[in-house]
Amino acid sequence: MQQPYVNRINGPKGITTIEFFHPKHNSLPSAVLAELAKKITTAGQDDSVNVIILRSGGERTFCAGASFDELININDFETGKKFFSGFANVINACRKCPKLIIGRVQGKAVGGGVGVVSAVDYCFATQFASVKLSELNVGIGPFVVGPAVQRKIGLSAMSQLTINADEFKSANWALDKGLFAEVFDDAEAMDAAIDKLANYLANTNPEARAELKRIFWEGCENWDELLASRAEQSGRLVLSEFTKTALAKYK
Question: Structure pTM?
């Protein structure tokens, strides 16, 4: 079985690709979350980088969200808080990164995966990229990723995803709500569009790009504290009897 990884590949014109992978549908355990946040931060600090493309490996699921293997084994508050803080760190890394981040979503995005999609600056997807915030099914909520999702698609659409936690919304629904900028029939067409935009952006004024990035994220300056408090909420709820029983079904 292929091992989890987070790779950074530097391409021409300062176009950097960051790719994460996990054999269980690109789920996100703590180690992958930490490395993903680190690589986004490092690329953002690299003067040779003009644009970042964020993607996952494989041809099917973009990201299945939190690692159930890890969730099942959380037995104390500090461990739970630390785990959910991993998602906060990835979102905040995207927020603070002065480089524009293009998202590539080839398939389904669930839970924390929707949070990752929401944290990029411009997102491409295929018709297979349906989305779901499934947290309520296991007795928690999308507390950490919620601010990023709400910022991108608004409170009403975020509430629809959160409340109807057992139903996928289509890629076209996500396009209509603003989560995706463009949706394609297949990955080949999507990749051609990503390459075109990345090359265009690499030739624009880097100071203008950085100022635009700052303006796009205005009003989110308190997210270090906000997402930390949301991680505490999730860290408490994951210890509840309801959640423990629900997670046990995934063993």
Answer: 0.97
